[in-house]
Structures are given as structure tokens and as C-alpha cells.
Write a structure and sequence with these properties.
heterodimer; A: globular; B: 195 residues
Amino acid sequence: MSEVNSEAKQGSMEVFFNGLVKENPTFVLALGMCPTLAVTTSAVNGLGMGLTTTAVLVLSNAIISLLRHIIPNRVRIPAFIVIVASFVTMVELLLEGFIPSLYSALGLYIPLIVVNCIILGRAESFASKNPVIPSIFDGLGMGLGFTVALTAIGAVRELLGAGEFFGVPVINKVLGGISSMIGREEPIEYVPISIFVLAPGAFFVLAALTALQNRVKRKMREKGQNADKIQSGCSSDCASCSDGGCAHRFVDVDGAPGSVADAKKE
Amino acid sequence: MLDVVKDLLILMISSSLVSNVVLSQFLGLCPFLGVSKKVDTALGMGGAVIFVITIASGVAAVIYKVILERFDITYLQTIVFILVIAALVQFVEMFLKKYVPSLYQALGVYLPLITTNCAVLGIALTNVQKNYGIGFSIASGLFTAVGFLIAIVVLAGIREKMEYNDIPESFKGMPIVLITAGLMAIAFCGFSGLL
């Protein structure tokens, strides 16, 4: 409990930057990466997915925090799921009405935000224990951290896989500039590694990312710093969301362990 | 009749191999990466996934056709499906524990991992999107889950072999598994020529 109290005392800005940098959900906590990989084929899609998730996260964090004394502990997971699913449905309908291009690009992955580890995880570990204002800032920080990460992954995949950055063929422009500088008549053309915008590319980008995490973690350990906070991507048994809602049972049953994480501790 | 058989065959190949649930749609990655250290446990997980997804897509399809479509409230599908699926998984778990202990022994530990699995919800939503009937929804759920079983067992087989390989320090653990999955995804791209 002491940890919760100290978290509650933090200023809103601190909570915000905590989500954005120190506990970035994607690069540090490796939360909710997996299903969103499918839509990060370009920077724009990554940005769209990230902002959609942020909107849902902020709204659901606010409502769950407001209702935190009303929701009975035993049925909190279904209650959280209903709140999150309602906001996801609203956001989905709004996107369909106002940004149809993004709606068709994200497709099935918009309703799947409901099962994103980040949202239930923050509901369970932050919003259900803290007042409204910090919860909103927590949602904003975590959501924007997620957005930055998804945009970065999308940008890398787009750059390698299509030679473009936000739809602008930057590589060919640079190569064209270089060719005219060295006086070639036919500009050098970039041949895109199209595997990076296909499904396998997502796995390779995520592999590179987790390898980088491992390296940072090793360096930190060598220097004697605490690197426990960094979790490697999609690690074992959904353990990356062990403090969140993912691995929890729907309704706590007497005698049954409350979650997979609890079962492991026992 | 022949048309139905033909459609079912196409559905089988497309949902289990061509658009494989993990390798091309990224659904259910958590159990795919987490429970694939040994072939035995991978088989158990695959079995549990087949069991849950087949039942869940059937139930979701019935609810969609009987309740949501009749009362014209299909926009509630996400909320209804996720609640039904989460409750269903826990109900199945309790039912198996009480009445079919042998099956519970084999699958029980994996069931909580599937509670809010995106694959289950994803398939229920895809079935609605593609406008499948109840029978086809169940078939599509079953075949998709079989695709999951194939992918996770193959990955587990490779990981067992990889155990003693010399892997660069930073790539030990998850990164090398992700690269393996990526290579498998390339291989599965080859199936797209089947249809």
C-alpha cells in the first residue's frame, strides 16, 4: 500500500512524464505491443492507432477512477471491461463517421483495443487506486508514450518497406539529390524491402527492439543500476501484464487464485 | 451441397494456413510466445485454444444472429462479445473442473490465459464482418484455432532444437523467438499461392 500512497502524492506532471518516458508502455514495459503490430505498417497508421488508444485510455481511466469506490472488488474486471468496451465502441463509431480512411486502415484492430493490456492494466494498477486528475494524466502520459512508440515503429517499417516517411518518398528524394550532385543522368532508385510492411517485418522490428532492450538492460546491470523495470517484449505467459487485467480471472471465485500471477507466486 | 463443401475447404485452407491467426494477423501472440518452450505444453495450449475459440465463436454467432440483429443493436457487438467471451471462458473452466476432470487436467492451466485473449474476440468479430452464418462461424473458429495449433507446435519444435545453440547475448530469450516467428511468417506467406 505504501507504494500506492507515494504514487498518489506525485504531481500530475510527474505522473504524465512517468508514462511518457520513464515507464513508456511500449519500450520499457512492453505492454500491449502484440496486436497493434499488425497496423504499424506506416507512420500514419501507428499515429492513428496510438491516438485512438490514448483517447480510450484517458476516458476509461477518468471514469474508472470516478467509480473506484462504487465498483465492488469482486466484479471489478467485468465492470472495467464494460467501461472500456463502451468507450472503444464510441471511438469506433466516431472514426467511422469522421475519419473513414483511418477507420478502414485500422479495421478489426479498433475493437481489439478492448483487450489491449495497457488499458486494463492501467485501470487495475492506477485508475482504481488514485483520484481523477492524476488518473487522467496517467492515461495521457501512457497513451502518448504508446503513440510515440507506435509511430516510431511505423516510421521504421514504412521507411524500410516503402522508402517513405509519412507518405513522402524521402529516400528517393535524397538519392535523387545525391545523383544530381555527382552528375549521374539517371537517378539512383531505392528498392524497398517490402517484407517490412508485410507481417514478417513486424516480427523482425519487434525482435530488434527487444534485443535493444536486452542490451540496455545488460549495460545497466553492469553499471549496477536496477533494470528490473524494463521488461522484454511479450514475455512469458502474458507476464508483462501480470500487474494488469489481462491475466486476471473474470470474476474472483472463492478459493480460486485471482490471477495467473497470483497462481505463480503460490 | 457440393458448393458448401467447396466453401468449407476454402475456408479451412484460408483461415488455418493462408491468413494464419498469429503469423499474419498477430492475434494471440501472448500465448504463442509465452507457452511455446516445449512441444507438450504447446499441444496443451493449442488444444485449449481450439476448445475455447470453437465454443466462443459459436456462442457469439448465435447471440449476434438471435439477439443483436433482431433488435437492431449490432453496434453493441464489441461490448457484448467481450463480456460473453470472458464469462464463457471462466464458465467452461469451472464446468470442466467439476464434470470432466481429465480434460481439466490437460487444459485447465491454460484456460485463464485465454480469458481476454485477442484471438477469441478477433475471430468473433471477423465472423460478423464476413457475414458468416452460425455453422460457418463455428467452422471458421475451429479452423483458425487449428492454424494457431499448427503455428505454436512448429515454433515449440524449433525452440526445443534452438535450446543449445550459440545465440548472441542480446538476442537471447524473446528476440530470437521473434526472429524465428518472423521466418515462419515468411514461410507461411508461401501458402497464399494455395488459393
